[in-house]
Amino acid sequence: MKIAVCIKQVPDTWSEKRLSPSDATLDRAAAEGVLNELDEYAIEEALRLKEGHGGEVTVVTMGPERAADTIRKALSMGADAGLHLCDEALHGSDACATSDALARILAGRGFDLVIFGCESTDARMSVIPAMVAERLDWPQATFAAEVQVAAGVLTVRRQTEAGVDTVTANLPAVVSVVEKINEPRYPSFKGIMAAKKKPVETLSLADTGIEAATVGLAAAWSAVTDFAARPPRAQGEIMSDDGDGGRRIADYLVTNRLI
Amino acid sequence: MATILVLADHTAGTVTKATTEVLTLARRLGSPTAVALGPGAQAAADTLVQFGADDVLIAPEEELLTWLVTPKVAALQAAAALTAPSAILLASTAEGKEIAGRLAVRLGSGVITDAVDVAADLTATQSVFGGDTTVHSRVTRGTAIITVRPNAVTAESSPGAGRLADLAVVLTDADRRVRIVEHADAVTAGRPDLAEARIVVSGGRGVGSAEGFTVIERLADTLGAAVGASRAATDAGWYPHQYQVGQTGKTVSPQVYIASGISGAIQHRAGMQTSKVIIVVNKDPEAPIFELADLGIVGDLFTVVPQLTEEVERRRG
Ligand SMILES: Cc1cc2nc3c(=O)[nH]c(=O)nc-3n(C[C@H](O)[C@H](O)[C@H](O)COP(=O)(O)OP(=O)(O)OC[C@H]3O[C@@H](n4cnc5c(N)ncnc54)[C@H](O)[C@@H]3O)c2cc1C
Ligand SMILES: Nc1ncnc2c1ncn2[C@@H]1O[C@H](COP(=O)(O)O)[C@@H](O)[C@H]1O
Hints:
The complex is a heterodimer.
Chain A: E1 2-6, E2 9-11, E3 33-35, H1 37-53, E4 56-62, H2 68-77, E5 81-85, H3 95-106, E6 113-117, H4 128-136, E7 140-150, E8 153-160, E9 163-170, E10 173-177, H5 189-195, E11 200-203, H6 205-208, E12 222-229, E13 237-240, H7 245-255
Parallel strand pairs in A: 1-4, 1-6, 4-5, 5-11, 6-10, 7-10
Antiparallel strand pairs in A: 2-3, 7-8, 8-9
Chain B: E1 3-7, E2 10-11, E3 14-15, H1 17-27, E4 31-37, H2 41-50, E5 55-59, H3 70-83, E6 87-91, H4 94-107, E7 111-118, E8 124-128, E9 133-139, E10 144-148, E11 163-166, E12 179-185, E13 199-203, H5 213-223, E14 226-229, H6 231-235, E15 256-260, H7 266-269, E16 277-282, E17 295-298, H8 301-316
Parallel strand pairs in B: 1-4, 1-6, 4-5, 5-11, 6-10, 7-10, 13-14, 13-15, 15-16, 16-17
Antiparallel strand pairs in B: 2-3, 7-8, 8-9
The structure holds flavin-adenine dinucleotide and adenosine monophosphate.
């Protein structure tokens, strides 16, 4: 089975995220970039499917030069190859352009399955997997808490706030995973060494046939008009429980007319 | 007046609260046309009109519910062709966002997710980075497709004109690719909905076991609150997944959030830090959740929480 995993570099979860005053895009230079946590689950699921069915796992990312670090991490976990779409012109691309670019580099490479995380921690849109599926004209079985493949048929246990669905589709298909699906492995020392020799193909826009005028901030189909940071929360009163902690909370709730 | 298309979310005719909120918002932007699909669509129409639908387009075919996501995209596409709306609004659920994304591709339109408000000129307000930043944005191409975060708008009933019409939805083979072979609704425990509750009482790994959660539930029931849980608690199987609060669970913004035995990992904070008042009970004075606390008690939740429950009961007489 030929599996692609779409991964994204995002600002470190613990870092303070902010928009750049100049163009209202996420200030990626302000924080250390890490592999989107949910995408680790996507990589893990791909590796498990490969272990069960044989095949090859290619990780795919669209992002600036330093996003190559996320490909290295995936390769050291055990993925076989990387594909990096990297072009200045892509800066500020919205979901429409991102899904278009990803679909174009995924199409025609013979993948049976493309696995995504169900959400990026920075954009938090949860739309890219469905939009890529639409563009590829493939079925989507998203928010997977369990994935099975047998005889070219994909079965997914889909877990959302609406409940749990079991869905089936024929391959090729798009899957996105929730964090309940598995426990991602850590890269081993051997894996880290091996990753250095694995192939990573870097593509520019020209290689993909995407016109620069259709991507990036200026071509986005939605635009930020303005933004403002919320004032930070001031810490309140912290006290240790001297046998009356519960009563203190009750006092607070009553005094502030919260109950 | 401009048409605002709204996808109605309903189960066998029972319309979700999120949909009544979206309709309430749609009324401020133009004339709402609701799209109701599948068996029960006719029954759903009553509620849709009550919350402001001037028109309801109905496609009752069962088949629309047997395939995942795509039939709903096709239905909205058909409704958009019919009504040339100025905006299409959906509830910001997992499915709502996917429908919006696919529809954006089909219509060549921009999409905005998780709006907490939409102004008359279709400028959407979003609260991003766990509530740290408020952003205003607009769709600049095609029809504005916007998903609205549940519980961000207060639903108010105000009947619309209520014209009902049939909607013809033609599914292509591409719409019939992902079959839903089984569906189980998320079970509710008779408490207020987590995303909608005025007070949320949450427990984490510190609660220690499924039985431990009775302490949390008792406080919740005394306060008329919803119960939430950290991922550590849902992963351990002590509490069902649908009650998980955080990045990969629900985003809540209640008047009061009471966190017991929760350390305050960034992924948990992402789902609760816009709560108006945050109260923390934790044994460890270094727990990062205290940074968010309006009132924090460093202590054992198994003594503090039951005492709080008793105290509230006593004061109520
Ligand atoms: C991709 C991804 C997504 C995630 N999504 C979410 C999410 O949506 N929601 C979420 O919550 N987490 C999420 N997490 C997990 C998150 O990182 C933390 O692991 C989790 O929130 C920890 O839960 P906890 O605070 O209950 O447990 P812990 O961090 O173990 O904290 C338990 C706390 O309980 C205290 N305690 C113990 N006993 C007592 C007692 N008797 N009385 C009082 N205090 C006590 C301890 O001092 C400690 O502070 C996610 C992680 C990843 C990687
Ligand atoms: N620039 C990108 N490159 C590769 N994959 C991406 C990119 N952006 C998003 N994704 C994938 O899409 C998923 C959902 O992202 P989002 O829709 O932004 O919440 C992520 O978990 C990734 O798997």
